[in-house]
Amino acid sequence: MSKLEFNIVEIPEGESRKTVRLSGDDLDLSPHTFEGGEVELVFYRTPHFIRVNFEVESEVALTCDRSLESYIQPIVSEYEVVFKVDVREESEDENGAVRRFDFSTNTLDVGDEVRDTIALNIPIKKLHPKFIDEDGTPKEFETKSYGDIPDEEEGESEMADSRWEKLKELKN
Q1: Containing domain of residue 50, as a range?
Q2: Full-prediction pTM beyond 0.85?
Q3: How far apart (Å, rounded) are the C-alpha atoms in residues 70 and 63?
Q4: Count of CB atoms within 10 A of residue 81's CB?
């Protein structure tokens, strides 16, 4: 049984809370590396459903797209899952999901939802914090030039080769 799988009979009626510490081995975020985190779960149990709200605070090791340096990206997000008895079709969106009870094991598993919540909050553009200013916007690229770049006209005259002149004479 994983750290994010809970026995239904152990969840008391009404509202209850649980905090789960996750290590780097608890979630697979391939191709990224999960460094660990904490999940704060709030259960609300009635005879007909169990609602699980959770907030994830975690760290993921990423590689910067600009400098290829590794850095740790903190991720904070929340999600809600409602487990019901009479659900014909499970559904989910960006705010929450509706799942059916697993009567064969009598457990609730929110591991997939926690993993997906973290994965969906990994930024598309992965920039090391040194490339982000205090407002949270990316800094501009620094450009450097080494030596002078010749103008086109100068380049053409230098590129003129005596062999070209001889070939033109042969053509005529």
Answers
A1: 5-131
A2: no
A3: 4
A4: 21
